[in-house]
Amino acid sequence: MSFDIALSGINAINKSLETISQNISNSETNGYKSGRTHFASAMAETQPAGVKVSGTRYSVEANGSLRSSGDRLHQAIQGGGFFILKETNGQRVYSRVGDFQIDKDSKLVDGSNRSVQGFAQGQANVSDVKIDKSPVGALPSTAINVSGRLPDPLPAAPARVGEISVTFRDASGELAVRNLRFEMVAGAPGTVQVSEIDGPNAPVILGTLDPATMQWTRGGAPSTLPDLDFSGMNFQRGAFSATATEVGGREAGEFVRARIDKDGSVVAEYSNGTSNTQYQLALGEFANVGGLVPVDGTVWRETGDSGVAQLRRPGEGATGVLVSGSLEGSNVNVTDELVSLMSAQRNYQANTKVISTQNEMMRNLMQSI
After folding, report:
1. 211-244: b (≥16 Cβ within 10 Å) or e
2. pLDDT surpasses 90 at 49
3. What whole-number distance in Å separates Cα of residue 71 and Cα of residue 231?
4. For residue 1, what pLDDT is reported?
5. Region 314-323 average pLDDT
6. Which residue ranges does the record assign to the Flagellar hook protein FlgE/F/G-like D1 domain (predicted)?
7. N or C: which end of the chain has fewer CB within 10 A?
8. Are residues 151 and 213 in the same domain?
9. What are phi and psi of 40, to 5 degrees?
10. 138 lies in a domain?
11. Considering the chain, what percentage of its residues have pLDDT values greater than 70?
12. Over the stretch 205-263, which tens digit does the pLDDT of each residue have?
């Protein structure tokens, strides 16, 4: 019986050594969680039977340190959530490693080419995050804001007060330049007439401006200009001065790159300086993370012990927030592993000593017969 008991000890220690070796070998693996082999005493009815391995538990709750990668698609989680990934066979797995990239099909995938899951805009269910790289069209300006100064007092006789250049985007989204002319006209004392000037063409009267209230009254012939807003003008002493700023217009743009913000928003950026949020990354939250089972590729599968993953957005529940441009390192403490290795070595030697002692006793017994 002593042989069997000591042998069970050696077998248990071998299993512990496997776990320690796995930890040490993955001390630089992003997102790896260290494991510990646990033991329980074995009994054959009422007789001692040595030791058995009760299981390996992983320190899933302990986060590794964050490492800056400089890649705007790389993400780390500060909290208890997991990235949700879909394997090629359609099964979901969960990971702490956000080493994301865009593949040839415009999908957001991890370093092992698993599809990252997220919420499309306006959707409550998760799906593969696929970047729409379509170009964006030009847009016309929706308004022109004019700010500056109308001189107080204004000329009493008909006269030009001032003129400014206006750059905007026309109905087709193309850049256009016009001038706005401010002048006093006969028969309208106390109001300023505003006209559109387009090169050598005759001026087009757009309307009148009350300098006391900056009330704009549009009238006259149709104009190529968008709505005018003079709320930024002031009636005060000094020379005429004004600037015009267009609102809402943009040139056409091509897709340049994608980024992920700390709230998990997957944003497409375009050459015209605009951006478009297309998805928000989904995170999984578990009632018992200790019940997750590790599988190949530094990912985890849910089990009955872990409970079903609750789909969250970053910042919801205990999932935590994202840190863009970073990756979570391994939580292995190499010093602790080396101490555990020495302890396992001593236990192994002690069990082999039991076997050698028992063997010596048996040999003496056989020689005495």
Report:
1. beebebeeebeebebbebbbeebebeeeeeebeb
2. no
3. 44
4. 60
5. 94
6. 76-133
7. C
8. yes
9. -140, 150
10. no
11. 99
12. 999 999 999 999 988 678 889 999 999 999 999 999 999 999 999 999 999 999 999 99
Average pLDDT on 320-335 reads 95
81 domain-assigned: yes
pTM comes to 0.78
The mean per-residue pLDDT over the stretch 322-337 comes to: 95
* Residue 191 located in a structural domain: yes
How many structural domains is the chain composed of? 3
Range(s) of the domain holding residue 149: 143-247
Cis omega (within 30 of 0) for bond into 153: yes
Q: Which of 134, 121, 135, 145 is nearest to 250 (CA)?
A: 135
Domain for residue 89, yes or no?
Answer: yes
Q: Which of 225, 56, 263 is nearest to 143 (CA)?
A: 225
Task: Indicate the pLDDT class of residue 164, thresholds 50, 70 and 90.
Answer: very high
Distance, in Å, from the CA atom of 322 to the CA atom of 336, rounded to the nearest integer, reads 29
- What is 326-347 written as a DSSP string? EEE-----HHHHHHHHHHHHHH
Are 17 and 78 members of one domain?
Answer: no
Is 317 found in the same domain as 276? yes
311 and 223 belong to one structural domain: no
Do 199 and 150 belong to one domain? yes
3-class state of residue 136 by DSSP:
strand
| Token representation of residue 286 | 């578990």
Specify whether 153 is located in the same domain as 240.
yes
Under DSSP, is residue 174 helix (H, G, I), strand (E, B) or coil?
Answer: coil
Q: Are residues 128 and 272 in the same domain?
A: yes
Exposure string for 99-120, b = 16+ CB within 10 A, e = fewer: bbebeeeebbbbbbebbbbbbb
| Band of residue 188 on the pLDDT scale cut at 50, 70, 90 | confident
User: What are the pLDDT digits (tens) for 67-108?
Assistant: 999 899 999 999 999 999 999 999 999 999 999 999 999 999
49 backbone φψ class: left, alpha, beta (φ>0; ψ -120 to 50): alpha
Task: Pick the last residue of a domain from 247, 280, 312.
Answer: 247
